[in-house]
């Protein structure tokens, strides 16, 4: 650890107007450049990577440890360029980390956090080959799909190691034993596989352990390891932890482009040695609490500390040439009309469900409302997606005409509803199906309150049997009447859904394929087994996606080949194709058109988002892709953008050391799932209910609709009617629930309410910025040069332009043109020339007194030099102690992480 003390010259003007001075203060620190070109700093072997690779400036500011490990890989592999210099570097540090034994007697693990397309597969294959040459002939390779076994074989072949066999666990019977050596390839779901064949209870994990033997010291690869993120709450996650504990000497490698989207999802990385015996954090929960409490800055410290310690490496392809843009799509009047009808019917359905539940006297309703609101959310999500189909096709046609090709990303295929209709019609289908209608119908058909859900108490007193019999008769009659009324309500609701269904949009995926010219023009890479297609004569039928000689499991690979060869110029991918399939403009394939990757439906998590985006941006490409995020004008759709923006922001900080590393700034305006969103929600609900006076006025249109808005918020479960207190906020109405539920409001109400929310959200952020309470992530203190502060390479100056008369129009650094003109004397006082080299507060000279100085405190206002103390080095292990000390002194829990740029660096840049 090193403690530095240094001074920075400031350009803050004397605060004639207090608010103006505060605005300057928030701009004192500027964001540093996000990326630096990456070159191995201590490894000298190998040929340069074929593409430009970058590392975030935060991570590049700390060095990796010195190299002590000597590779056994053959010279032909190294000098022949089968593994690039940066892939060899990762292999060296991985094998070097495996020489470390943690205090809990387990062997240390290594995390490869390289981005999609850098070549993690070859790196992993290199680690397996290195250990094979060292006599460790067995290795385990876990991934998310059995099809990726072929990729593993390809990666080993590419580095000239085809002699290492890859065995698929799913092809080996539970009772059989695998061969004595090679790579045992399995999926994460295989870890929880069980069999009762022959009356014996056999499990896959026992079969794996029997093959490895207790003293196993070979490699275990957890590829796409983010799939094990819920290690405490899922059987699969627990199995990943259990396997690591059962084989303490194994050489564990975690490999993922996304690592973990939140600190809580790092729990399966038990071999990193960050928590546990001999560390500052006794348990994972202690580590989690310390990191989450300190915000984004602490997550950045984690990534830096891991790199310094030699347990982590994270590079990604340069995004140079990649473009990101958001297309906000307007809604036509016909769509708004249908959307509003749907919103009203869902509000009616809520009341009908409540009446039916009351009629039956249901005691427990948690499951009922869970089903209702999840269906509500899925229904409106389908409508949001459908609203963008026409615009997407129009945009795509323009790009195709410009000589490009299209990749469309979505998550929902709507296959379950199609199969339901198929079953209802004995396997025949002559129309496109509406997924939204199916969600609504399924909810009412399967989950409408019924007699089965009732919880009745049996009569307790046997001595009053006659009375009990009388009560029983009354209850039976009542039940019959009640059941009839409830059935009538249910059928009436189904009838109304059927009428609405005629106007609802059709299945998005089928409609997209149809509008692009049918299956012959589109490469579909999804998990569904069949689709609805239009015949040349205009009729419609359901057909299987399987082809002669190809199983459904291999059809996605065939479709990929058709796209890459240029036979088809449009590809549609879902989550099923978001791992392991390369769709970039590869130099080795025929179709080298620029890829335009359109995201019709944002994935539910950043893990999935990064996987999907990484399909079209990979190594060895002719051109980088264009990314287009399609978001409708429906305010509620911000919910889907919000969750991805939140995860990407967090993900960048954790897995790449900088929260802007994944270009999430393009979506950052949609991230509301934070403390400001929670505060803004509290303010608008209390304001609408009349409990408080809000400083932020509501939109005029909303002001006229306040009474309607209360009812609307009750219709979607944001507000509820409490018999004791009147209208109140729904219990546990989190920002997530709010963003989910407003989808169910009519379009105009939804947009007005959301505008009011975002106005409050923006106000709260600006307020905290002015008060210095806003956590801006990584900011840079930049050294001074020739009396002027530098921001990047640009000197910061004040511009005074001659206005009318003797006054000047003033333009200030970072905040621009000032509304009030100034005299030449005032301009001179505010310029960096005035008092440029003094460190005396100029406040006393301007107004003769300073409150802080009169109170015997230090006055920093107006100073040209300010002193900072900076702690450098591997901070994670002393983070809690440092934070506690600073908190005691400053009464603030915020520690700002600031890379300092020296004068030398300024000259070099």
UniProtKB/TrEMBL annotation:
<dbReference type="InterPro" id="IPR039187">
    <property type="entry name" value="SNO_AAA"/>
</dbReference>
<dbReference type="GO" id="GO:0006355">
    <property type="term" value="P:regulation of DNA-templated transcription"/>
</dbReference>
<dbReference type="GO" id="GO:0030154">
    <property type="term" value="P:cell differentiation"/>
</dbReference>
<dbReference type="InterPro" id="IPR027417">
    <property type="entry name" value="P-loop_NTPase"/>
</dbReference>
<feature type="domain" description="Strawberry notch helicase C">
    <location>
        <begin position="507"/>
        <end position="779"/>
    </location>
</feature>
<dbReference type="GO" id="GO:0042393">
    <property type="term" value="F:histone binding"/>
</dbReference>
<feature type="region of interest" description="Disordered">
    <location>
        <begin position="10"/>
        <end position="30"/>
    </location>
</feature>
<keyword id="KW-0221">Differentiation</keyword>
<dbReference type="GO" id="GO:0001503">
    <property type="term" value="P:ossification"/>
</dbReference>
<keyword id="KW-0010">Activator</keyword>
<dbReference type="GO" id="GO:0002281">
    <property type="term" value="P:macrophage activation involved in immune response"/>
</dbReference>
<dbReference type="GO" id="GO:0071354">
    <property type="term" value="P:cellular response to interleukin-6"/>
</dbReference>
<keyword id="KW-0678">Repressor</keyword>
<dbReference type="Pfam" id="PF13872">
    <property type="entry name" value="AAA_34"/>
</dbReference>
<protein>
    <recommendedName>
        <fullName>Protein strawberry notch homolog 2</fullName>
    </recommendedName>
</protein>
<keyword id="KW-0804">Transcription</keyword>
<comment type="similarity">
    <text>Belongs to the SBNO family.</text>
</comment>
<dbReference type="InterPro" id="IPR026741">
    <property type="entry name" value="SNO"/>
</dbReference>
<dbReference type="Pfam" id="PF13871">
    <property type="entry name" value="Helicase_C_4"/>
</dbReference>
<feature type="domain" description="Strawberry notch AAA">
    <location>
        <begin position="49"/>
        <end position="341"/>
    </location>
</feature>
<comment type="function">
    <text>Acts as a transcriptional coregulator, that can have both coactivator and corepressor functions. Inhibits the DCSTAMP-repressive activity of TAL1, hence enhancing the access of the transcription factor MITF to the DC-STAMP promoter in osteoclast. Plays a role in bone homeostasis; required as a positive regulator in TNFSF11//RANKL-mediated osteoclast fusion via a DCSTAMP-dependent pathway. May also be required in the regulation of osteoblast differentiation. Involved in the transcriptional corepression of NF-kappaB in macrophages. Plays a role as a regulator in the pro-inflammatory cascade.</text>
</comment>
<dbReference type="GO" id="GO:0005634">
    <property type="term" value="C:nucleus"/>
</dbReference>
<dbReference type="GO" id="GO:0031490">
    <property type="term" value="F:chromatin DNA binding"/>
</dbReference>
<feature type="compositionally biased region" description="Acidic residues">
    <location>
        <begin position="15"/>
        <end position="27"/>
    </location>
</feature>
<comment type="subunit">
    <text>Interacts with TAL1; this interaction inhibits TAL1 occupancy of the DCSTAMP promoter, leading to the activation of the DCSTAMP promoter by the transcription factor MITF.</text>
</comment>
<keyword id="KW-0805">Transcription regulation</keyword>
<keyword id="KW-0892">Osteogenesis</keyword>
<dbReference type="InterPro" id="IPR026937">
    <property type="entry name" value="SBNO_Helicase_C_dom"/>
</dbReference>
């Amino acid at each position: 650890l090193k403690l530095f003390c240094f001074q920075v010259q400031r350009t803050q003007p004397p605060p004639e107007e207090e608010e103006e001075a505060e605005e300057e203060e928030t701009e004192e620190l500027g964001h540093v450049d996000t990326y630096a070109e990456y070159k191995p700093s201590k490894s000298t072997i190998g040929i340069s990577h074929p593409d430009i690779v970058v590392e975030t400036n935060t991570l590049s500011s700390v060095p990796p440890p010195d190299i002590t490990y000597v590779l056994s890989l053959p010279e032909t592999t190294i000098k022949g360029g089968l593994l690039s210099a940066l892939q060899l570097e990762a292999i060296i540090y991985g094998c070097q980390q495996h020489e470390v034994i943690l205090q809990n007697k387990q062997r240390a693990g290594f995390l490869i956090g390289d981005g999609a397309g850098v070549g993690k597969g070859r790196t992993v294959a290199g680690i397996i080959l290195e250990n094979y040459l060292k006599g460790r002939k067995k290795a385990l390779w876990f991934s998310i799909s059995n099809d990726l076994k072929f990729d593993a074989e390809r990666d080993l072949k590419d580095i000239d190691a085809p002699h290492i066999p890859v065995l698929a666990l799913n092809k080996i019977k539970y009772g059989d034993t695998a061969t004595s050596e090679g790579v045992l390839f399995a999926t994460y779901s295989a870890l929880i596989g069980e069999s009762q064949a022959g009356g014996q209870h056999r499990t896959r994990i026992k079969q794996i352990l029997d093959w490895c033997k207790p003293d196993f010291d070979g490699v275990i690869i957890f590829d796409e390891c983010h799939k094990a993120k819920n290690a405490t709450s899922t059987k699969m996650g627990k199995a990943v932890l259990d396997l690591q504990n059962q084989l303490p000497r194994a050489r564990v490698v975690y490999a993922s482009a996304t690592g973990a989207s939140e600190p809580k999802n790092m729990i399966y990385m038990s071999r990193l040695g960050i928590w546990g015996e001999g560390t500052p954090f006794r348990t994972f929960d202690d580590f989690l609490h310390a990191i989450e409490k300190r915000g984004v800055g602490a997550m950045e410290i984690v990534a830096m500390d891991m790199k310094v310690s030699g347990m982590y490496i994270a590079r990604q392809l340069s995004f140079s040439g990649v473009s990101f843009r958001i297309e906000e799509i307007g809604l036509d009047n016909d769509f708004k009309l249908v959307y509003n009808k749907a919103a009203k019917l869902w509000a009616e359905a809520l009341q009908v469900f409540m009446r039916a539940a009351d009629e039956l006297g249901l005691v427990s309703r948690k499951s009922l409302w869970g089903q209702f609101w999840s269906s509500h959310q899925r229904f409106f999500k389908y409508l949001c997606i459908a609203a963008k189909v026409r615009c997407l096709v129009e945009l795509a046609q323009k790009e195709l005409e410009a000589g490009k090709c299209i990749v469309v990303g979505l998550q929902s295929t709507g296959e379950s509803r199609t199969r339901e209709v198929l079953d209802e019609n004995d396997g025949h289908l002559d129309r496109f199906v509406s997924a939204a209608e199916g969600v609504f119908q399924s909810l009412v058909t399967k989950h409408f309150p019924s007699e089965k859900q009732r919880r009745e108490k049996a009569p307790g007193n046997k001595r009053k049997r006659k009375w009990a019999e009388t009560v029983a008769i009354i209850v039976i009659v009542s039940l019959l009447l009640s059941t009839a009324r409830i059935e009538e309500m249910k059928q009436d609701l189904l009838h109304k859904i059927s009428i609405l269904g005629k106007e609802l949009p059709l299945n998005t995926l089928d409609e997209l394929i149809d509008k692009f010219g049918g299956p012959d023009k589109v490469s579909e890479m999804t998990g569904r087994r069949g689709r609805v297609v239009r015949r040349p004569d205009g009729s419609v039928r359901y057909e299987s996606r399987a082809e002669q000689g190809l199983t459904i499991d291999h059809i996605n690979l065939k479709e990929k080949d058709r796209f890459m060869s240029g036979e088809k110029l449009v590809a549609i991918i879902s989550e099923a194709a978001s791992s392991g399939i390369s769709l970039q403009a590869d130099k080795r394939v025929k179709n080298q058109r620029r890829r335009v990757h359109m995201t019709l439906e944002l994935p539910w998590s950043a893990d999935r988002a990064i996987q999907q985006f990484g399909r079209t941006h990979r190594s060895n490409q002719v051109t980088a892709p264009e990314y287009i995020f399609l978001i409708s004008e429906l305010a509620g759709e911000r919910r889907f953008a919000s969750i991805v923006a939140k995860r990407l922001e967090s993900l960048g900080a954790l897995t790449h050391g900088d929260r802007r590393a994944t270009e999430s700034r393009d979506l950052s305006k949609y991230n509301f799932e934070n403390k400001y969103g929670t505060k803004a929600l509290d303010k608008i609900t209390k304001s609408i209910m009349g409990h408080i006076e809000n400083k932020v006025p509501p939109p005029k249109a909303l002001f006229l609709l306040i009474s309607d808005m209360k009812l609307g918020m009750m219709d979607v479960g944001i507000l509820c009617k409490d018999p004791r207190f009147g209208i109140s906020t729904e219990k546990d109405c989190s920002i997530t629930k709010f963003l989910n539920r407003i989808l169910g409001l009519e379009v105009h109400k939804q947009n007005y309410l959301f505008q009011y929310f975002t106005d409050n959200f923006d106000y709260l952020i600006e307020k905290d910025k002015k008060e210095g309470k806003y956590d801006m992530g990584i900011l840079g203190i930049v050294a001074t040069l020739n009396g002027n502060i530098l921001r990047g390479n640009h000197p910061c100056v004040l511009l005074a332009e001659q206005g009318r008369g003797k006054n000047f129009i003033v333009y200030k650094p970072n905040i621009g043109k000032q509304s009030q003109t100034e005299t030449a004397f005032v301009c001179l006082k505010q310029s960096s020339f005035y008092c440029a080299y003094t460190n005396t507060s100029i406040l006393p000279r301007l107004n003769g007194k300073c409150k802080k100085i009169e109170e015997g405190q230090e006055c920093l206002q107006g100073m040209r030099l300010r002193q900072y103390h900076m702690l450098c080095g591997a901070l994670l292990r002393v983070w809690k102690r440092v934070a506690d000390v600073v908190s005691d002194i400053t009464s603030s829990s915020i520690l700002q992480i600031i890379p300092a740029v020296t004068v030398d660096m300024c000259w070099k840049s």
